[in-house]
Design a protein that fits this description.
Elements: E1 2-6, E2 12-16, H1 38-60, H2 80-83, H3 87-91, H4 99-111, H5 121-146, H6 154-169, H7 174-196, H8 203-219
Antiparallel strand pairs: 1-2
Helix pairs in contact: 5-6, 5-7, 6-7, 6-8, 7-8
Length: 220
C-alpha cells in the first residue's frame, strides 16, 4: 500500500510498503529532519487495513432484498390467438382465381394472331411481285445509264419487294416473308443474267443480301 506521512517538522513524504502483521517491516525516518516516523507509519497502516476490512465485509454481506408491496406478481403467458387478430381481418380475404380461368387467359394470349386487321397473303404476294419488278427496273436503268456493275444493286430489289408486300398485305407474316424472299431472289438473279449475259460469282453476295432484306421486311 501507499503511505503518506506528515512529519512534525512540516515535511510530507510518501512511500509504498507491504505490511507484515499490520506493522512496518522496517524503520522509516523523515527525509528532512531525520526524525523516526515509524510509529506514524504504523498508525496509517492500521487505519488503511480497517477501512479495507470494512469494505470487504460490506461486499460479503449485502443487505437483504425486501419483497415488493402488494404481493408477488406472476406474468402469465397469453395465447397468441387472444392477442393477434386473424390475418383475414387485417388484410382482407383473398380468393385465388380458378385454374380454368388462368389457362383460358394464357391460351387466348398465345392464340392471338400476330397480325391484326385485314391481312391478306394474296395481296402480299402481289405486292412482292410488283416490288421486285420495280426494283429490277431500277437496276436495269442504272446499268444502262452508267454501264457500271455495282455489286450490291440487288439490295434495292429486296427492299422494294419486301416493303411492297408488307404494304399491300397490311401486315407481316413468316410465310409472306419466305415467299417474298424467293420472288426477290429469282428476280434479281434473272436480271443479272439479262443485263450481263452471264452470272458472275460476285453477284452471289448481292443476291444473298437481297433475299435477307426482302424476308426481313415482309416477316417482321
Amino acid at each position: 500500500m501507499e503511505l503518506k506521512v506528515a512529519c512534525d517538522c512540516g515535511q510530507n513524504f510518501k512511500f509504498d510498503v507491504d505490511p507484515v502483521n499490520g506493522q512496518m517491516p522496517f524503520a522509516v525516518n523523515c527525509p528532512a529532519c531525520n526524525e523516526d516516523a515509524t510509529a506514524k507509519a504504523n498508525t496509517l497502516i492500521s487505519e488503511n487495513l480497517a477501512v479495507a476490512s470494512a469494505a470487504v465485509a460490506e461486499i460479503s454481506n449485502p443487505p437483504p432484498i425486501m419483497p415488493a408491496s402488494g404481493g408477488l406478481r406472476i406474468n402469465r403467458h397469453v395465447p397468441e390467438s387472444q392477442t393477434a387478430p386473424p390475418l383475414a381481418s387485417a388484410t382482407g380475404s383473398f380468393t385465388p382465381p380458378p385454374i380454368g380461368a388462368i389457362k383460358s387467359l394464357s391460351t387466348d394470349k398465345k392464340s392471338r394472331p400476330k397480325i391484326e386487321g385485314e391481312f391478306s397473303l394474296a395481296r402480299g404476294i402481289l405486292g412482292a411481285v410488283a416490288g421486285a419488278l420495280v426494283g429490277c427496273g431500277l437496276m436495269v436503268a442504272f446499268w444502262m445509264g452508267t454501264h457500271f456493275r455495282f455489286p450490291f444493286m440487288g439490295i434495292a430489289v429486296g427492299a422494294a419487294a419486301g416493303y411492297a408486300a408488307r404494304w399491300l398485305a397490311r401486315g407481316t407474316d413468316t410465310t409472306l416473308g419466305v415467299i417474298t424472299a424467293s420472288i426477290a431472289g429469282v428476280a434479281v438473279t434473272g436480271t443479272f443474267v439479262l443485263m450481263y449475259g452471264e452470272f458472275a460469282f460476285i453477284n452471289i453476295i448481292s443476291i444473298v443480301i437481297c433475299i435477307a432484306v426482302a424476308y426481313r421486311a415482309a416477316s417482321d
